[in-house]
């Protein structure tokens, strides 16, 4: 027991001393990056980069076989990583430290928190380096390199990236598997945009890049494709890593072709505007090499795979006379009976396949479907390169253009000069482009245009082939002659124009793009939730719970407010029954929709007069319908139908006044506001015969607080029409008695339908009332109903 206690005491003192003097122990660097590169402390970035490139070529282990070349190469690389980054260089100049995740601030003397002061440093313990440093250094990624090179390249090939650090002991355990996987995938990579990309991120030196990728612990392995990051969550086994790379690729990248489907696959070149590649091999699963090639050229070529080991593919194998002992690739363009190019080899290499597809990535006469294809087929003229001309057929999609298009294809197949590129365009799909090229000569398709691009902004020189294009032998001969003249004399192109950008004919609809983006986001959310990646999920979860809280809070507040508004008010005993209308005739222009399927209309009597008019709340308006006993039912039903769409307003109330009971109230109101008295022919005639006005069908909007009203006068019905047709000249000829008899007979002919139409324009009047554009008639005081005796 005594020995154990001494050992424990020594360990405690060792930890205490490390916590107290850790900064002084760790501050001594293993090497001086300035001395390693042989530059001064005031050297510029250009000088450091120039020296670094020279030393890397001199000490690269593949060229320098001396024993210390690998260690020196590692020192040169790390020195450049420190000095090429201004932040790390500043930290090294100030503190002599190289790891950006260390605490560079000088702490006061004494004890500090154990977590802040206690750390391991390679310069103190001097552990021997392993060969894994050189393997990782070849694929080491910087933030700027990731943004400018790796991220754009991920749209052409997938990347497998490892997140590690110098003192990650778990990383050492997976190192053999990682190294074997890299050795297997590296031969599939060619250049920057083909095969599988490998990357290593040191979380100590590249904290910004690790945070950008969402990696916060080591070791981590992730995949990058199409700019999207996917984490690897399975056991680190070589086969699992390979399957992970394959899973990054789109599912329907390569179509499996059989005897029943190969003709359909080859003949679909016209719709997709792409050559077709058939790959023949004896393997049930499509090899990764083929999938990577298909992904790299997915924008140019459509790929199909034929498993020669199946009985369902024997016809297609015999059809093209394929040797079953070696993998074969056939490339088809417009002619589906005969391949345009063929390669066959036992050991199919990535470089051979890529060169084969790259040289045949365009159809013989492709259709211009987007600006990117136009830029590649008809590049901008460069001074140091040979001129390239584009022969463009402007045509249509109908049956009448089929023979014309085929004749153009035949001409293009017999004129395969490198200096000339043939293409065609549909006028309906690319209307702005065709209008620009054909407007000067006012021609219509089909037409052939010779053009040369002069700038990336769209400037071209062009000339339309004379006499159009009908596909005849004379047309072919004429086009051939003009091409010969153009190659001898570039000034033959006489017209100058600025072409608009081409429409993308294959662009998916906005809704489809939004659905695909939402699906990717939800799948990533589910994946992160499944593997409890809580650190990355916290911002998303916080946003979701905040939105739910706001939503439920709004619903609860609205529910309580509506429950208060929906409490029924006590009805007075003298109120008449309500008028219901469930089918309003006009659309609502009010700010609130109706909450009920009926309109509450109260009779204006001597009992309800004070509350519904004189003592009405400020800002509230009572809309009053004037009627008689005979027209009550018809007008009330029409009135309710017209004002239903405005019944959602809380400031409008609806009443009716029976002039048979209160005959003098309207006359008293009109006397208080002379400017509101009507001046039409009806009033004049009725004043002439009897001093009594007919107010049936009038509607008043009464503001009890401000003592003004707006008036609606009914539209002409049968009786008013008769009056309007009774001219003053006829009245003078016939005399007063005849005019009175004529008006009396017209009143007898007035029907219920005519009374119903008195309120036809009430909806428009209500809209103007809500807008505040109606004329207002002010009164000094409201006439009272209690002093007027109703008629018996």
TrEMBL record:
Residues 580-592 have a biased composition (Polar residues). Residues 1-26 form the signal peptide. Keywords: Glycoprotein, Membrane, Signal, Transmembrane, Transmembrane helix. This is DnaJ (Hsp40) homolog, subfamily C, member 16 like. Residues 32-96 form the J domain. It comes from Cyprinus carpio carpio. PROSITE patterns: DNAJ_1, DNAJ_2. InterPro entries: DnaJ_C16_autophagy_reg, DnaJ_domain, DnaJ_domain_CS, DNAJC16_TRX, J_dom_sf, Thioredoxin-like_sf. The chain crosses the membrane at residues 539-560. Pfam families: DnaJ. Residues 566-575 have a biased composition (Basic and acidic residues). Residues 566-595, 727-752 are annotated as: Disordered.
């Amino acid at each position: 027991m005594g020995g154990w206690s001494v050992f424990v005491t020594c360990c405690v003192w060792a930890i205490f001393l490390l916590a107290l003097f850790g900064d002084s122990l760790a501050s001594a660097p293993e090497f001086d990056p300035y001395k390693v590169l042989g530059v001064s402390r005031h050297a510029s970035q250009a000088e450091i980069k120039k020296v670094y490139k020279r030393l890397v070529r001199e000490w690269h282990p593949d060229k320098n076989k001396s024993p210390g070349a690998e260690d020196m190469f590692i020192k040169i690389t790390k020195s450049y990583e420190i000095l090429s980054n201004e932040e790390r260089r500043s930290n090294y100049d100030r503190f002599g430290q190289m790891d950006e995740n260390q605490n560079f601030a000088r702490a006061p003397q004494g004890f500090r928190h154990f977590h802040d002061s206690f750390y391991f440093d390679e310069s103190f313990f001097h552990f021997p380096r392993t060969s894994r440093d050189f393997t990782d250094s070849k694929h080491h990624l910087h933030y700027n390199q990731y943004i400018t090179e790796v991220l754009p390249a991920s749209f052409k090939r997938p990347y497998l990236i490892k997140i590690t650090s110098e003192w990650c002991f778990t990383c050492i355990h997976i190192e053999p598997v990682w190294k074997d996987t890299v050795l297997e995938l590296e031969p599939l990579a060619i250049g920057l945009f083909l095969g599988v990309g490998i990357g290593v991120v040191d979380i100590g030196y590249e904290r910004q890049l690790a945070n950008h990728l969402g990696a916060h612990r080591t070791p981590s392995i992730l995949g990058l494709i199409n700019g999207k990051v996917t984490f690897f969550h399975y056991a680190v086994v070589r086969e699992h890593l390979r399957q992970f790379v394959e899973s990054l690729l789109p599912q329907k990248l390569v179509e499996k072709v059989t005897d029943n489907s190969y003709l359909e696959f080859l003949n679909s070149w016209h719709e997709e505007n792409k050559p077709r590649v058939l790959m023949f091999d004896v393997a049930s699963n499509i090899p990764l090499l083929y999938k990577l090639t298909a992904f790299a050229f997915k924008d140019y070529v459509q790929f199909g795979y034929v498993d020669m080991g199946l009985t369902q593919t024997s016809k297609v194998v015999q059809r093209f006379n394929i040797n079953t002992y070696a993998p074969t690739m056939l490339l088809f363009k417009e002619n589906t009976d005969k391949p345009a190019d063929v390669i066959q080899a036992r050991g199919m290499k990535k470089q051979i396949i890529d060169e084969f597809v790259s040289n045949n990535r365009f159809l013989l006469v492709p259709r211009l479907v987007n600006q990117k294809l136009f830029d590649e087929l008809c590049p901008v003229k460069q001074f140091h390169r040979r001129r390239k001309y584009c022969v463009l057929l402007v045509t249509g999609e109908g049956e009448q253009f089929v023979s014309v298009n085929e004749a153009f294809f035949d001409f293009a197949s017999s004129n395969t000069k490198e200096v000339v590129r043939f293409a065609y365009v549909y006028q309906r799909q690319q209307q702005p482009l065709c209008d620009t090229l054909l407007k000067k000569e006012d021609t219509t398709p089909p037409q052939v245009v010779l053009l040369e691009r002069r700038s990336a902004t769209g400037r071209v020189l062009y000339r339309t082939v004379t006499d159009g294009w009908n596909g005849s032998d004379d047309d072919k001969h004429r086009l051939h002659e003009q091409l010969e003249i153009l190659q001898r004399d570039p000034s033959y192109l006489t017209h100058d124009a600025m072409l608009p950008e081409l429409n993308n004919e294959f662009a998916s609809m906005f809704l489809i793009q939004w659905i695909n983006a939402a699906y990717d986001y939800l799948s990533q959310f589910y994946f992160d939730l499944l593997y409890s990646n809580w650190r990355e999920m916290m911002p998303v979860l916080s946003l979701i719970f905040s939105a739910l809280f706001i939503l439920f809070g709004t619903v609860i507040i609205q529910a309580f407010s509506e429950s208060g508004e929906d409490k029924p008010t006590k009805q007075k005993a003298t109120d008449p029954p309500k008028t219901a209308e469930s089918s309003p005739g006009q659309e609502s222009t009010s700010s609130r929709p109706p909450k009920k399927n009926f309109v509450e209309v109260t009779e204006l009597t001597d009992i309800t007069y004070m509350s519904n008019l004189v003592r009405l709340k400020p800002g509230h308006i009572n809309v009053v319908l004037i009627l008689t006993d005979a027209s009550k039912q018809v007008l009330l039903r029409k009135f309710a139908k017209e004002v239903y769409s405005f019944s959602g307003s809380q400031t409008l109330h609806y009443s009716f006044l029976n002039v048979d009971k209160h005959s003098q109230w309207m006359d008293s109101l009109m006397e208080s506001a002379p400017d509101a008295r009507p001046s039409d022919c009806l009033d004049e005639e009725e004043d002439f015969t009897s001093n009594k006005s007919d107010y049936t069908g009038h509607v008043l909007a009464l503001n009890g607080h401000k003592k003004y009203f707006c008036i609606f006068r009914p539209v002409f019905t049968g009786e008013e029409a008769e009056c309007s047709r009774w001219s003053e000249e006829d009245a003078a000829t016939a005399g007063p008695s005849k005019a009175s008899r004529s008006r009396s007979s017209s009143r007898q002919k007035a029907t219920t339908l005519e009374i119903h139409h008195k309120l036809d324009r009430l909806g428009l009047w209500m809209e103007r009332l809500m807008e505040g554009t109606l004329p207002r008639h002010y009164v000094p005081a409201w006439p009272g109903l209690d002093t007027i005796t109703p008629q018996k």
